[in-house]
Design brief:
Helices cover about 35% and strands about 20% of the residues. The protein has about 180 residues and is of the alpha/beta class. Strands 4-3-2-1-5-6-7 form a seven-stranded mixed β-sheet, with helices on both faces. The longest helix has 16 residues. About 30% of the residues are buried. The mean pLDDT is about 85.
Length: about 180
């Protein structure tokens, strides 16, 4: 990591990438809101890059919440598929020198953020909140095939990160069981 991340009391600019955030209410959105609040209280500068669900008024967002377009997911869930490109996202990533990238999903936006971190030689942290295999039933393909793909994707993604965190010990144990070593 850059030297300034190691200096006690240094303010760190963090790009937080997520596939879900307010106004959607779920565990990931709540965790990110709490993380953002805690980082700000410590004097850091977190920026949240999140989807703008249909009908969301982005003018009501704080300036450090940057939205990209999203479309409703083609499944029965309150979830949107992010399109992680927009003028606002590009300008922010170009104009602000981030120190760290923190993702909250190993797919979609997470993969794009992983590329951004590597391209800019930034440390990459991810938090795995979800056991993605439980969503395999939402995809109209053989469940065992989808589950195997998701386990491989999550393991590969995590092992390319500098640090992996989880909200619970059981999530950590699941990651270790599928081959995550980071």
């Amino acid at each position: 990591p850059p030297d300034r991340l190691c200096k006690r009391g240094a303010s760190v600019r963090i790009a937080i990438f997520t596939n879900t955030y307010w106004p959607t209410v779920n565990g990931v959105a709540i965790s990110i809101a709490n993380l953002r609040r805690g980082l700000r209280a410590l004097g850091h500068e977190p920026y949240v890059f999140a989807p703008a669900p249909a009908g969301h008024d982005i003018s009501r967002d704080d300036p450090d919440v940057i939205r990209y377009p999203a479309v409703p997911a083609p499944v029965q869930a309150d979830y949107h598929l992010a399109v992680p490109y927009s003028g606002a996202v590009s300008r922010t990533l170009r104009d602000i020198q981030f120190d760290l990238v923190h993702t909250h999903h190993p797919m979609w936006v997470g993969s794009w953020a992983q590329w951004y971190a590597r391209w800019n030689r930034l440390p990459l942290v991810t938090t795995i909140h979800t056991q993605y295999e439980i969503y395999s039933k939402l995809i109209p393909l053989p469940g065992a095939l989808i589950e195997a793909y998701l386990r491989a994707q999550v393991s590969s993604y995590c092992n390319k990160c500098h640090l992996v965190t989880t909200p619970a010990r059981s999530a950590r144990e699941r990651l270790l069981a599928i081959g995550v070593t980071t």
